[in-house]
Amino acid sequence: MSHNQIGLRIDGRRPAELRKITSTTCVLSQADGSAYLEHGNTKVLAAVYGPREARHRALVLHDRAILNVELNVAPFSSGERRRRSKNDKRLLEMASFVKQTFEPVVIATLYPRSQIDIYLQVIQHDGGTLQACINATTLALIDAGIAMTDYVCACTAGWVEREAAIDLNYIEESSDTSEVTIAMLPKSSKITLAQMESRLHVDKLEEVFRLAGEGCKQMYEVMDKTIRDRAEDLARKMTV
Amino acid sequence: MLRQKAFMKKTKSGKVLKVVKEHYLRDDIWCSVETCKVCEHTEPVLSAVPSINKAFRLPHYIIPDTNIFINQIDVMEHPLITNVIVLQTVLEEVKHLSLPIHQRVRDMIANKEKRFYVFSNEHHRGTFIEKLKDESPNDRNDRAIRVATKWYGNHIKDLNPRVSVVMMTDDAGNRDKATADGLQAISVKWYIEALDNTEILDMMSSAKDLDDGQKTIYDEHLSPAHVSNGIKSGKYLQGKLGISSHNYLEGSIYTKINGEEGTILIVGRSNLNRAVDGDIIAVELLPKSEWRTTPTGVVVDEEEEQAEEESLKAEQEAAATAVKEDAVMAEPEAEKPAAVETHKLDTPQPCGKVVGIIRRNWRQYCGFIDRKSVHTPAGSSAPVNVLFYAMESKIPKIKIRTRQAHALLGKRIIVAIDSWPRTSRYPIGHFIRALGEAGDKSTETEVLLLEHDVPFHEFSKQVLSFLPVEGENWVVQPEHFAGREDFRSLNVCSIDPPGCTDIDDALHVVPLANGNYQVGVHIADVTHFVKPGNVMDQEAASRGTTVYLVDKRIDMLPSLLGTNLCSLRSNVERLAFSCIWELNKDAEIVNVRFTKSVIASKASLTYEEAQNRIDDANMQDDVTSGIRILNMLAKKLKQRRLDMGALTLASPEVRFSLERDTQDPVDVEMKELKETNALVEEFMLLANISVARKIYEKFPDSAMLRCHPQPPSANFEKLEKAVARFGIDIDHSTSKTLSDSLDNAVLPEEPYFNKLLRIMTTRCMMQALYFCSGAQIEQEFRHYGLATDIYTHFTSPIRRYSDVMVHRQLHAAIDSSLAYGDELTDKEKMNDLCGNLNHRNRMAQQAARSSVELFTHLFFKNKTEEEEGYVIRILKNAFIVLIPKYGIEGIIYASAKVPKTADSGDAAAQPQPILVYNPETDCLQSTETLAEGETPKTQVQLFQKVMVQISIDDDLKGGGEGGMRQKLKMELLKPWIEGISVHGISNKDDPEAHALTSKKREEAPGQDQDKKRAGKRTKA
């Protein structure tokens, strides 16, 4: 793209702009908490069950709850139809990222000897799956009423055509870009996940991190609004 | 606002995918007009009151469509064209159609004075349009341009009703639609003609109107789909066309024929079918019966030129009476086969015919207007078609339309090709700019730089902004010592040619207690200043190398770095990258290490000064004794290298003494080599080899190395045959055997013979090349000439970019904590870089040679000299003579020409061969019939000593058929061959001999590189 002349990215955004985010909670009545989140064309559904009794006795921790994350990518989620096995290493890795991200944030000691299940379903994929999963999980956990120290807001950033940009879409991601995903606790600005799989010049790292952090803060605004709207809505329904 | 874009796409593997993209529309895209109050832009590009053109009464902004950029880029680049709105739609289409033009548009946008503004109409809420049902993408884009023009018109109307927006398009249909929408639309032609400026008028690319009534000369090219299917099925062969430098109607491609690599000849105008040198073409093999034998002849295509000239004349006369629009030339009579009759060899070479052009390689060409093609009276400013000769003889003549034909005669000009329709014998082009008077030194220097694609513009401000802020006052600071060794106390000295200001290497030696020596090579630490990826680095990477011309130097790095901060001058502290060995008494490496360092050179010597110090027994200071030790070690190193089979080759290099003020050459001498040259060279070779091993160890996949492939034996065939006559055998199976046979090839009666043989052996060699270690197998790393298994360039980072990369890799190899990007590890990028460096290097060499040639011509101006020379190459109807004293070469033709008769179409005008080529002996011999075993009366063969007369043709300004290309004239004095030889200076009026030499188009000696390549191809 003619990045330097018009300062716009391939889809018309500026470097520090997120895609259009839409999110709702409480979309599945069966689950204890659920959320649906769209980062542009990346669409994720999250369902939280628990805290409930642990399935396997052997895994039970006597002082705290265990987190269990399962991630699934729909075969129809990308341009080419492709079925992934449940044991796809890529998916297992991503699930474990999500798990690691939330372990320090969920106050698990409140729920000893129990298990919290987080099921994630990627319905459409257009870049930034991990960030969308983390954000959806945050919303679903809040919806389930599970105690957490803060929101967890995730955002990607990368070096696209000689410039740092956030929330990369699939095209930007796939043109050999170095991409960082970070997940942040917006109140304390603490980072619970920073993940990068390609090489990035050390001089550029700081700029990319800074932008990603800003992206997380923007993300927080959106997510917080969703939760507050939802709460207001609920309150209204209860008074009626 | 959000739109989805969805479309189907076919992947490389043939799958059909649906791609869904987001497309955001914005409210914050501004108009960028200076006085606009509504928009919130900070740095407006478009001036409030743009220029006025006679075609409109009001000041206006121009909105061009895609084809304007594609076809009329030269016009758009003219300084008269400003205040242009480049729509995003247009920019993307340009990018899709032509990357070089896209780059040029981007350059214009970056140029503040041009006031080109990119308007992102596709992301603007008011100008985005959806594709309608049944609307083609082209129609949709045209409509997008109209919508954007309309939006701008309305937007500006509120601002200043006196300013308007004009859409520029050459598509009449689009113009009509625009007019119907109430927009102003105009064609380039109309707009430019209203500007009333001859220069810009000439730059306008000619319209591609094809008149059906015209006779077509060429076969149609096949469609791209047809061609690519044909190549897949093996019906057609693909290759890059290389035109012979002796004959622009003969080309060849190197490709795989039935699985075997080989050359396909393409001979003649109709077989070449409008392909130009460097084009990627698709070729169909001709039936075997039409295959030909190797013709390496020089062609003088008299008839065809004559006919063309007449047609031009007729046309110009017609044009004078009634100025026609876009006149296309009348066709001359049927064409004669241009090539010289050839001798039949046993194995005919495959011949082919161009069926399609896959990618054009058209660029801008330097050259001049053929005086003969101008027939209008002087002072006329009516547009006429004239013929243009490119300086490069491989390029066909180009027909251009100009209004300033007389003003341009005798000048060097630049021309671009626009198109080559089937009905036109020559490609049609347009004038770009004039460089200056032919024969003028600065003009000719510019020509040779342009012709060799040497970037010689000044360094931009952006590049200079990466220089140290301290400028000339930069000094080594205490913090620079971090990670560096302090070698300031060592007796380091540098040895370079006189007048050298970019000193990139220095040496030291310290005798150690154990009897060994510590030897250090210190190289300027350029990478301390040039950081990867910044603009200065990119510029250096693109320039690739410093180019040395006779009277000037085109730097790779800004001179503050090259001749000052990096240059290891004496008695100042400088940063260096050092290679330190421990060598034993026999100059064998005990150990080696590399380190960044700080040095303070004690002396910068010339080769001569260093030599004098060695020889002067009175000098006993530390530096001098150091040089003596180094000299001793260097001799041992050299001996060992020679024993390993390193070659000592030779080239006839000359050096000019220039007059101080005018820089005109006053004397020529051969470059002299001293022992100290070899001293420095030995240690540089040693450093390069040591560094190569180190970086290959660290970066097995991406190290930048240099190899020199073994020459194929075909290259030696002719030479072997020629020296066999003297009872000498050349064994080139390894460099060792070659080196030995060269040493033994001495003729006592001819002292120059050995040198000559070495010069000619050099020409049989392959080019040494940079490569990325991951791209070749280890056996091919070998450097044949130096007889080493691995080699790289480390020692001249000021003037070669390869060395800069090697410095970075070496630094990464010795400092594991160093952070580096993928520029050092990415195999593909490294490969691309090597490709560019090889190209730049080759071009730099050729430019340097052309510069020498230019100065030779200046030197011989108004001089006529008789010199001894040697025959170094035999062609079909000519031979090439080398003059050792001046290192120049010239062609002498082996055929006399019958004076032109009245009816020029007659065969009598064909040159009559006096000597003919004998393929068995590779000789030119007289034509009398011979009895068995009898030697011909006169013959010319390789290595033969001849006397020639050298002079400069005064007719520099064109007029003759070769016009300005004819420069250095060489005429044979001895042996006397009737019809070819001339009498000496005393007897200059010999009419026949004079007619013979001055009428022909001579090859300039500097093109020997091309000749070599052409020679190789035909032999392969």
From TrEMBL, chain A:
A GO CC annotation recorded here is: cytoplasmic exosome (RNase complex)
Q: Which UniProt keywords apply?
A: Cytoplasm, Exosome
Q: Domain Exoribonuclease phosphorolytic: where?
A: 17-146, 150-214
Where is it localised?
Cytoplasm; Nucleus, Nucleolus
Q: What is its main location?
A: cytoplasm
Q: Per its UniProt record, what Pfam families does this chain match?
A: RNase_PH (PF01138), RNase_PH_C (PF03725)
**Which Gene3D superfamilies does the protein's record reference?**
GHMP Kinase, N-terminal domain
| Highest taxon of the lineage | Eukaryota
Q: State one molecular function term (GO).
A: RNA binding
UniProt cross-references to InterPro entries, sorted A to Z: ExoRNase_PH_dom1, ExoRNase_PH_dom2, ExoRNase_PH_dom2_sf, PNPase/RNase_PH_dom_sf, Ribosomal_Su5_D2-typ_SF, RNase_PH
Q: What family classification does the UniProt entry report for this protein?
A: Belongs to the RNase PH family.
Oligomeric state and interaction partners are given as: Component of the RNA exosome complex. Specifically part of the catalytically inactive RNA exosome core complex (Exo-9) which may associate with the catalytic subunits RRP6 and DIS3 in cytoplasmic- and nuclear-specific RNA exosome complex forms. Exo-9 is formed by a hexameric base ring of RNase PH domain-containing subunits and a cap ring consisting of CSL4, RRP4 and RRP40.
Q: What is this protein called?
A: Ribosomal RNA-processing protein 41
**What organism does the UniProt record list as the source?**
Linnemannia hyalina
Upper classification of the source organism reads: Eukaryota, Fungi, Fungi incertae sedis, Mucoromycota, Mortierellomycotina
Quote the gene name from the UniProt entry. Answer: EXOSC4
Automatic annotation (TrEMBL), chain B:
User: Residue ranges of the PIN domain?
Assistant: 60-176
Q: Which cofactor does it need?
A: Mg(2+)
Which PROSITE patterns does the UniProt entry name for this protein?
Answer: RIBONUCLEASE_II
Domain RNB, by residue range, is 484-816
- Family as reported in the entry's similarity comment: Belongs to the RNR ribonuclease family.
Q: Where is the composition biased (Basic and acidic residues)?
A: 986-1012
Tell me where it resides. Cytoplasm; Nucleus, Nucleolus
| GO CC terms of this entry | cytoplasmic exosome (RNase complex); nuclear exosome (RNase complex); nucleolus
Which Gene3D superfamilies did the record assign? 2.40.50.690, 2.40.50.700, 5'-nuclease, Nucleic acid-binding proteins
Superkingdom of the source? Eukaryota
Q: What is the name of this protein?
A: Ribosomal RNA-processing protein 44
Q: Which GO terms describe its molecular function?
A: 3'-5'-RNA exonuclease activity; endonuclease activity; RNA binding
Which key words are in the record? Cytoplasm, Endonuclease, Exonuclease, Exosome, Hydrolase, Nuclease, Nucleus, RNA-binding, rRNA processing
User: SMART domains recorded for this chain?
Assistant: PINc, RNB
InterPro entries the UniProt entry points to:
Dis3_CSD2, NA-bd_OB-fold, PIN-like_dom_sf, PIN_dom, RNase_II/R, RNase_II/R_CS, RNR_Ribonuclease, Rrp44_CSD1
Q: Where is this region: Disordered?
A: 983-1020
**What gene, per UniProt, encodes this protein?**
DIS3
Instruction: Look up keyword Cell membrane and say if it applies.
Output: no
Q: Name one GO biological process term.
A: rRNA catabolic process
**Keyword Isomerase carried by entry:** no
Look up and give the organism this protein is from.
Answer: Linnemannia hyalina
